[in-house]
Amino acid sequence: MDLSKSSRNSIIPSYLYSFSSQKSSSLDAPTPTATAFNGAAATAAAAAASSSAPRSRSFVVPSPSEPFGKIELYSPAFYAACTAGGILSCGLTHMTVTPLDLVKCNMQIDPAKYKSISSGFGVLLKEQGARGFFRGWVPTLLGYSAQGACKFGFYEFFKKYYSDIAGPEYSAKYKTLIYLAGSASAEVIADIALCPFEAVKVRVQTQPGFARGLSDGLPKFVKSEGALGLYKGIVPLWGRQIPYTMMKFASFETIVEMFYKYAIPTPKDQCSKSLQLGVSFAGGYVAGVLCAIVSHPADNLVSFLNNAKGATVGDAVKKLGLLGLFTRGLPLRIVMIGTLTGAQWGIYDAFKVFVGLPTTGGVAPVAAIEPAKA
């Protein structure tokens, strides 16, 4: 079989994932003597040919431990695994940083009272006690679990979908555009799932006495604002989350590829799983810092609009000011989002490894589609 032709015609761009492959140099080497062709050699050749045939028909991820067997890439089981990994990575991490999110939202809404990170924690502790630091954790957990399911699951779907449209050559050549388009498409859906929970969360966290949590906060919000009021912040949420997610996925994929290309001398498929997960966390942290900077103005708008009834974007800009829109609460958000994003990629890839899938990113695409040299 012509391996270069097979690579070019593959419907799954091989740069999306890397795998450990068995080398077949023994099959390519010349035989010691021309007369050594016997029954055993013929049997071995037939076995080698039969073992290579299925590789052109199916694309199965080899699992080191195989707790659930092998999962075929882009099968329903693959997307289910990515969805489950997204639920764990986003829901758990956002719930964990609820105290930081609480202080950040209050700094955005009432800067006169919450003047800094340290004083903000002090005010919350004095007024609400230690339990107040986790106010709004239920809508945070449920909302970002739903968002994570859609974000990661649909990202994998759209990344494959757009790669198929572009074809192996162009999807490798314009891989960053594939990452950007796939993540943006996924986030549009993810924010529809997140928006109602985010609206209730902000109101619970920034208006003491409004509600204890989701169970009483949701009906009270709907009674006050109407059902459509839950989606009042959808456009600013898209404005915050779509650039955030595009940066999160595209920069992560690029950073991880650069790690394996320039910083780690060993090919990815020969690195230990612990090292690969460490790279995922480091790449995610750097990507998270970039995400926080890009999406912060819209984050301020979301907090402002969900806190004040009948507020508009113009009201937010007038009150916060253009500089405040870009800087208010930014240092805290950089710490929060950097840690959050690093942890998310670490958890997501750890779950993928657990079910037998490879970690995300890390393969330079050019060599993957380059014709084999004679």
UniProtKB/TrEMBL annotation:
Q: Summarize the protein's role.
A: Transport of phosphate groups from the cytosol to the mitochondrial matrix. Mediates salt stress tolerance through an ATP-dependent pathway and via modulation of the gibberellin metabolism.
Recorded GO molecular functions are:
mRNA binding; phosphate transmembrane transporter activity
Similarity section: Belongs to the mitochondrial carrier (TC 2.A.29) family.
Which Gene3D superfamilies does this chain map to? Mitochondrial carrier domain (1.50.40.10)
Per the record, the major location class is: mitochondrion
Concerning InterPro entries, the annotation shows: MCP_dom_sf, MCP_transmembrane, SLC25A3/Pic2/Mir1-like
Solcar repeat segments: 77-161, 174-258, 275-354
Coiled-coil ranges (or none): none
**GO CC annotation terms, alphabetical:** mitochondrial inner membrane
Q: Which UniProt keywords apply?
A: Membrane, Mitochondrion, Mitochondrion inner membrane, Repeat, Transit peptide, Transmembrane, Transmembrane helix, Transport
What does the record say about its membrane topology? Multi-pass membrane protein
UniProt protein name:
Mitochondrial phosphate transporter
Q: Where in the cell is it found?
A: Mitochondrion inner membrane
| Annotated GO biological process | mitochondrial phosphate ion transmembrane transport; response to salt stress
Which Pfam family would be a valid example here? Mito_carr
